[in-house]
Amino acid sequence: MAADYSFKGWKGLDPSSVEGKMQWGEYEPKPWTEKDVDIRVSYSGICGSDIHTLRSGWFPTPYPCVVGHEIVGRAVRVGKEVVRDIKVGDIVGVGAQSESCLKPDCESCTIGEEQHCTSMIATYGAKFLDGSKTYGGHANYSRVPGHFVLKIPPGLNPAEAAPMLCGGVTVYSPLTDNGCGPGKRVGIVGVGGLGHFGVLFARALGADRVVGFSRKADKRDDVIKLGADEYVATDEDKDWSKHHANSLDLIVCTVSSPNMPLQQYLRLLRPRGNFIQVGAPEDKFPAFSAFNLIPKSAKLGGSAIGSPAKIEEMLALADKKNIHPWIQERPMSDANKAIVDMDQGKARYRYVLVNGDAKL
Question: Residue 357 in 3-state DSSP?
Answer without folding.
Answer: helix
